[in-house]
Amino acid sequence: MKTNTGEFRYHFRNPDSSSVFHSELVAIREALSLALDNRASDSWILTNSKSSIQFLKDWLNVLDMLGQDIISKLAALTQVSSVCFQYDKPSHVEVYGNEIADLLAPEGSELPTASFL
């Protein structure tokens, strides 16, 4: 997150069983939390996850805890800031090397999980 006074970076790990969709929603929730915590005056949430935007667009039917948390944070932020969600081009499109990663991902998912002693 970039502000007038600096840049904040936040990273986290989801459980191994999390879907990409869930990870995108968690990232949106955390971005909204950062904006609220830092009292951002204008907030832009950039995502390449069309499904997460479509999910949140139907906010009256969002029933799960993560979705409700996002809607709650979004409502709070819009009281003090302007908020814009922007959908960027789909991930892995015209990004060097990602086509190969897409081809290898199914193979990698079939490999055994590494165990640590």
Automatic annotation (TrEMBL):
Stretches assigned to the RNase H type-1 domain: 16-105
Pfam families hit by this protein: RVT_3
GO terms, molecular function: nucleic acid binding; RNA-DNA hybrid ribonuclease activity
Record-linked InterPro entries: RNaseH-like_sf, RNaseH_domain, RNaseH_sf
Protein name per UniProt: RNase H domain-containing protein
Source organism: Trichonephila clavata
